[in-house]
Amino acid sequence: MSVTAEIGVFGGSGFYSLLENAVETKVETPYGPPSDVVTIGEVCGKRVAFLPRHGRQHQYPPHTIPYRANIWAMKSLGVTRIMGPSAVGSLQRHIKPGDFVVCDQFVDRTTGRKDTFYDGPFAVHISSADPYCPEMRRLAVEVIRDLGIPVHERGTNVVIQGPRFSTKAESRWFTGMGWEVISMTQYPEAVLAIEQELCYVNIALITDYDTGLVAEEGVEPVSAEEVMRVFHANNERVRDVLLEMIKRVSPVRDCKCATALKYARL
User: Fold this and answer.
1) Cα–Cα distance for residue pair 96/206, rounded to 1 Å
2) Is residue 266 in a domain?
3) Is residue 264 part of a domain?
4) How confident is the model at residue 131 (pLDDT cuts 50, 70, 90)?
5) Quick check: 62 and 75 in contact, CB under 8 A?
6) Alpha helices (runs of H) in 42-183, residue ranges in sequence order
Protein backbone atom coordinates (compact mmCIF):
# COMPACT_ATOMS: atom_id res chain seq x y z
CA MET A 1 0.00 0.00 0.00
CA SER A 2 1.31 3.41 -0.95
CA VAL A 3 2.19 5.60 2.02
CA THR A 4 0.49 8.70 0.66
CA ALA A 5 -2.78 10.49 1.37
CA GLU A 6 -4.92 13.29 -0.04
CA ILE A 7 -6.84 14.33 3.09
CA GLY A 8 -5.45 14.89 6.58
CA VAL A 9 -7.25 14.88 9.92
CA PHE A 10 -5.98 16.22 13.24
CA GLY A 11 -8.02 15.03 16.17
CA GLY A 12 -8.76 12.50 18.88
CA SER A 13 -8.48 8.73 18.87
CA GLY A 14 -12.14 8.15 17.92
CA PHE A 15 -11.29 8.61 14.25
CA TYR A 16 -9.18 5.45 14.00
CA SER A 17 -12.26 3.25 13.61
CA LEU A 18 -13.16 4.90 10.30
CA LEU A 19 -9.94 3.98 8.54
CA GLU A 20 -9.89 0.85 6.37
CA ASN A 21 -6.66 -1.02 5.56
CA ALA A 22 -4.83 1.26 7.96
CA VAL A 23 -1.05 1.35 8.26
CA GLU A 24 1.13 3.38 10.59
CA THR A 25 4.12 5.31 9.35
CA LYS A 26 6.80 7.36 11.04
CA VAL A 27 7.46 10.64 9.27
CA GLU A 28 10.70 12.56 9.66
CA THR A 29 10.63 16.32 9.28
CA PRO A 30 13.18 19.16 9.47
CA TYR A 31 11.31 20.28 12.60
CA GLY A 32 11.60 17.07 14.58
CA PRO A 33 9.05 14.29 14.94
CA PRO A 34 5.33 15.05 14.72
CA SER A 35 3.01 14.42 17.68
CA ASP A 36 2.79 10.70 16.89
CA VAL A 37 3.03 8.18 14.08
CA VAL A 38 0.68 8.95 11.22
CA THR A 39 -2.04 6.40 10.50
CA ILE A 40 -2.98 6.18 6.82
CA GLY A 41 -5.98 4.31 5.46
CA GLU A 42 -8.98 4.58 3.20
CA VAL A 43 -12.32 6.26 3.79
CA CYS A 44 -14.90 5.99 1.02
CA GLY A 45 -12.17 5.26 -1.50
CA LYS A 46 -10.09 8.28 -0.50
CA ARG A 47 -6.65 8.10 1.11
CA VAL A 48 -6.71 9.74 4.55
CA ALA A 49 -3.87 10.49 6.99
CA PHE A 50 -4.75 10.78 10.67
CA LEU A 51 -2.58 12.37 13.35
CA PRO A 52 -3.63 13.03 16.97
CA ARG A 53 -2.38 16.59 17.51
CA HIS A 54 -1.78 16.03 21.24
CA GLY A 55 -0.24 12.58 20.72
CA ARG A 56 -1.93 9.23 21.28
CA GLN A 57 -1.45 9.48 25.05
CA HIS A 58 -2.32 13.20 25.05
CA GLN A 59 1.28 13.84 26.03
CA TYR A 60 1.60 17.26 24.36
CA PRO A 61 -0.17 20.17 26.05
CA PRO A 62 -1.29 22.89 23.62
CA HIS A 63 1.76 25.12 23.96
CA THR A 64 4.22 22.27 23.25
CA ILE A 65 2.52 20.61 20.26
CA PRO A 66 5.03 20.33 17.38
CA TYR A 67 2.78 22.23 14.99
CA ARG A 68 5.40 22.72 12.26
CA ALA A 69 6.32 19.05 12.25
CA ASN A 70 2.65 18.03 12.13
CA ILE A 71 1.86 20.24 9.13
CA TRP A 72 5.09 19.32 7.36
CA ALA A 73 4.33 15.62 7.86
CA MET A 74 0.92 15.98 6.24
CA LYS A 75 2.34 17.94 3.30
CA SER A 76 5.13 15.41 2.76
CA LEU A 77 2.55 12.60 2.53
CA GLY A 78 0.75 14.38 -0.30
CA VAL A 79 -2.11 15.84 1.74
CA THR A 80 -3.78 18.91 0.21
CA ARG A 81 -6.69 19.33 2.64
CA ILE A 82 -6.72 19.20 6.43
CA MET A 83 -9.71 18.89 8.75
CA GLY A 84 -8.98 20.14 12.25
CA PRO A 85 -11.82 19.41 14.69
CA SER A 86 -11.30 20.72 18.23
CA ALA A 87 -13.02 21.08 21.59
CA VAL A 88 -13.73 24.72 22.45
CA GLY A 89 -15.52 26.85 25.01
CA SER A 90 -18.38 29.21 24.19
CA LEU A 91 -18.02 32.94 24.80
CA GLN A 92 -21.62 33.79 23.85
CA ARG A 93 -24.89 32.56 25.41
CA HIS A 94 -26.57 31.68 22.11
CA ILE A 95 -23.75 29.24 21.30
CA LYS A 96 -24.57 26.27 23.49
CA PRO A 97 -22.66 23.17 24.63
CA GLY A 98 -23.13 20.49 21.97
CA ASP A 99 -23.32 23.05 19.12
CA PHE A 100 -20.78 23.06 16.31
CA VAL A 101 -19.09 26.24 15.04
CA VAL A 102 -17.32 26.39 11.67
CA CYS A 103 -14.86 29.18 12.45
CA ASP A 104 -13.99 31.81 9.85
CA GLN A 105 -11.60 33.95 11.95
CA PHE A 106 -9.20 33.64 14.87
CA VAL A 107 -7.55 36.01 17.34
CA ASP A 108 -4.07 34.95 18.43
CA ARG A 109 -3.38 35.36 22.14
CA THR A 110 -0.47 32.89 22.30
CA THR A 111 3.19 33.66 22.97
CA GLY A 112 6.45 32.10 21.88
CA ARG A 113 5.10 29.39 19.59
CA LYS A 114 7.05 28.49 16.44
CA ASP A 115 4.59 29.91 13.96
CA THR A 116 6.30 30.07 10.57
CA PHE A 117 8.35 27.90 8.22
CA TYR A 118 10.08 31.02 6.91
CA ASP A 119 12.75 32.28 9.28
CA GLY A 120 14.94 33.44 6.36
CA PRO A 121 17.03 33.94 4.31
CA PHE A 122 14.14 35.49 2.33
CA ALA A 123 10.93 37.07 3.60
CA VAL A 124 7.51 35.49 3.16
CA HIS A 125 4.35 37.35 4.22
CA ILE A 126 1.24 35.24 3.74
CA SER A 127 -2.21 36.77 3.93
CA SER A 128 -4.24 35.50 6.87
CA ALA A 129 -7.18 37.83 6.26
CA ASP A 130 -9.35 34.75 5.74
CA PRO A 131 -7.42 31.99 7.51
CA TYR A 132 -9.80 29.10 6.80
CA CYS A 133 -10.49 27.55 3.40
CA PRO A 134 -13.83 28.90 2.09
CA GLU A 135 -14.58 25.72 0.13
CA MET A 136 -13.97 23.46 3.08
CA ARG A 137 -15.99 25.74 5.35
CA ARG A 138 -18.98 25.62 2.99
CA LEU A 139 -18.75 21.84 2.84
CA ALA A 140 -18.54 21.55 6.64
CA VAL A 141 -21.61 23.75 7.18
CA GLU A 142 -23.57 21.82 4.58
CA VAL A 143 -22.70 18.44 6.09
CA ILE A 144 -23.36 19.48 9.69
CA ARG A 145 -26.75 20.89 8.74
CA ASP A 146 -27.66 17.78 6.76
CA LEU A 147 -26.84 15.66 9.82
CA GLY A 148 -29.22 17.73 11.94
CA ILE A 149 -26.55 19.09 14.28
CA PRO A 150 -26.91 22.69 15.56
CA VAL A 151 -24.30 24.68 13.66
CA HIS A 152 -23.07 28.27 13.59
CA GLU A 153 -21.63 28.88 10.14
CA ARG A 154 -19.04 31.41 11.24
CA GLY A 155 -17.28 32.50 14.40
CA THR A 156 -14.07 33.99 15.76
CA ASN A 157 -11.86 31.60 17.69
CA VAL A 158 -9.77 33.22 20.45
CA VAL A 159 -6.62 31.12 20.81
CA ILE A 160 -5.06 31.37 24.27
CA GLN A 161 -1.66 30.07 25.26
CA GLY A 162 -2.76 27.51 27.83
CA PRO A 163 -2.42 25.13 29.43
CA ARG A 164 -4.40 27.12 32.03
CA PHE A 165 -7.95 28.26 31.36
CA SER A 166 -8.82 31.98 31.30
CA THR A 167 -9.47 34.16 34.31
CA LYS A 168 -13.00 35.57 34.64
CA ALA A 169 -11.69 38.99 33.63
CA GLU A 170 -10.02 37.66 30.49
CA SER A 171 -13.09 35.67 29.54
CA ARG A 172 -15.40 38.68 30.01
CA TRP A 173 -13.07 40.74 27.83
CA PHE A 174 -13.27 38.18 25.01
CA THR A 175 -17.05 38.00 25.33
CA GLY A 176 -17.31 41.79 25.34
CA MET A 177 -15.37 41.94 22.08
CA GLY A 178 -18.07 39.82 20.48
CA TRP A 179 -15.85 36.81 19.80
CA GLU A 180 -17.59 33.44 19.77
CA VAL A 181 -15.33 30.60 20.96
CA ILE A 182 -12.10 30.03 22.86
CA SER A 183 -9.47 27.31 22.37
CA MET A 184 -5.75 26.60 22.65
CA THR A 185 -4.67 24.88 19.42
CA GLN A 186 -5.85 26.81 16.35
CA TYR A 187 -2.74 28.98 16.32
CA PRO A 188 -0.36 28.39 14.63
CA GLU A 189 -1.90 25.25 13.11
CA ALA A 190 -4.11 27.18 10.69
CA VAL A 191 -1.46 29.63 9.43
CA LEU A 192 1.18 26.94 9.02
CA ALA A 193 -1.26 25.14 6.74
CA ILE A 194 -1.54 28.32 4.66
CA GLU A 195 2.26 28.52 4.42
CA GLN A 196 2.24 25.02 2.93
CA GLU A 197 -0.62 25.95 0.56
CA LEU A 198 -3.00 23.48 2.18
CA CYS A 199 -6.75 23.89 2.59
CA TYR A 200 -7.61 23.92 6.29
CA VAL A 201 -10.95 23.92 8.10
CA ASN A 202 -11.71 24.03 11.82
CA ILE A 203 -14.83 22.37 13.19
CA ALA A 204 -15.28 23.54 16.76
CA LEU A 205 -17.36 21.45 19.17
CA ILE A 206 -18.70 23.49 22.09
CA THR A 207 -18.01 21.63 25.33
CA ASP A 208 -18.82 24.34 27.89
CA TYR A 209 -19.56 27.99 28.58
CA ASP A 210 -16.34 29.81 29.37
CA THR A 211 -15.77 31.06 32.89
CA GLY A 212 -16.72 34.69 32.23
CA LEU A 213 -20.23 33.71 31.18
CA VAL A 214 -20.90 31.50 34.18
CA ALA A 215 -19.22 33.75 36.77
CA GLU A 216 -22.31 35.76 37.65
CA GLU A 217 -24.73 32.81 37.85
CA GLY A 218 -23.06 30.64 40.45
CA VAL A 219 -22.12 27.93 37.94
CA GLU A 220 -18.82 26.15 38.41
CA PRO A 221 -16.12 27.40 36.00
CA VAL A 222 -14.78 25.18 33.26
CA SER A 223 -12.71 22.12 34.18
CA ALA A 224 -10.68 19.75 32.03
CA GLU A 225 -12.82 16.85 33.28
CA GLU A 226 -16.07 18.47 32.10
CA VAL A 227 -14.58 19.43 28.75
CA MET A 228 -13.54 15.85 28.03
CA ARG A 229 -16.87 14.45 29.26
CA VAL A 230 -18.87 16.53 26.78
CA PHE A 231 -16.35 15.96 24.00
CA HIS A 232 -16.44 12.19 24.36
CA ALA A 233 -20.23 12.23 24.57
CA ASN A 234 -20.30 13.93 21.17
CA ASN A 235 -17.37 12.10 19.60
CA GLU A 236 -19.65 10.02 17.39
CA ARG A 237 -21.16 13.16 15.87
CA VAL A 238 -17.68 14.52 15.12
CA ARG A 239 -16.80 11.24 13.38
CA ASP A 240 -20.03 11.35 11.37
CA VAL A 241 -19.24 14.88 10.16
CA LEU A 242 -15.68 14.00 9.16
CA LEU A 243 -16.80 10.83 7.37
CA GLU A 244 -19.46 12.64 5.36
CA MET A 245 -17.10 15.51 4.51
CA ILE A 246 -14.54 13.03 3.20
CA LYS A 247 -17.25 11.36 1.10
CA ARG A 248 -18.34 14.65 -0.46
CA VAL A 249 -15.09 16.56 -0.85
CA SER A 250 -14.34 17.48 -4.46
CA PRO A 251 -11.13 16.19 -6.07
CA VAL A 252 -10.61 19.69 -7.53
CA ARG A 253 -9.46 22.67 -5.48
CA ASP A 254 -10.91 25.95 -6.78
CA CYS A 255 -9.92 28.06 -3.77
CA LYS A 256 -6.91 30.34 -3.33
CA CYS A 257 -5.27 28.08 -0.74
CA ALA A 258 -3.24 26.25 -3.39
CA THR A 259 -1.56 29.51 -4.47
CA ALA A 260 -1.17 31.17 -1.07
CA LEU A 261 2.56 31.81 -1.67
CA LYS A 262 2.17 33.28 -5.14
CA TYR A 263 2.40 36.90 -3.97
CA ALA A 264 3.81 36.31 -0.50
CA ARG A 265 7.54 36.26 -1.26
CA LEU A 266 9.55 39.47 -1.41
Assistant:
1) 7
2) no
3) no
4) very high
5) no
6) 67-76, 134-146, 168-176
Q: What is the mean pLDDT of residues 6-32?
A: 83
210 is catalytic: yes
Scored b (16 or more CB within 10 A) or e, 121-133 reads eeeeebebeebbb
- Reply yes or no on whether 208 is catalytic: yes
152 occurs within a structural domain: yes
Q: Are 109 and 181 in contact (CB under 8 A)?
A: no
Q: Which amino acid is at 172?
A: R
Strand partners, 124: 265
- In tens, the pLDDT along 230-251 reads 667 777 889 899 999 999 999 8
* Radius of gyration for the alpha carbons in the chain, expressed in angstroms and rounded: 18
| Predicted pLDDT of residue 56 | 87
What's the domain range around 66? 7-259
Q: Is pLDDT above 80 for 227?
A: no
Give the span between the Cα atoms of 240 and 203, in whole angstroms.
Answer: 12
Q: Is-above-0.90 flag for pTM? A: yes
Residue-wise pLDDT for 89-101, tens only, equals 999 999 999 999 9
The CA distance from 175 to 262, in Å, is: 36
Q: Which of 36, 99, 108, 208 is catalytic?
A: 208
* Number of folded domains that form the chain: 1
Catalytically annotated residue among 36, 119, 210, 240: 210
Helix (H, G, I), strand (E, B) or coil at 196: coil
CA atoms of 52 and 40, how far apart (whole Å)? 12
H or E element at residue 225: helix 224-233
Q: Is residue 31 a part of any domain in this protein?
A: yes
- What is the total residue count of the chain? 266
With contact defined as beta carbons under 8 Å apart, do 52 and 11 qualify? yes
Nearest CA-CA partner of 245 in 200, 206, 207, 205:
200
- For residue 106, give the CATH number of its domain: 3.40.50.1580
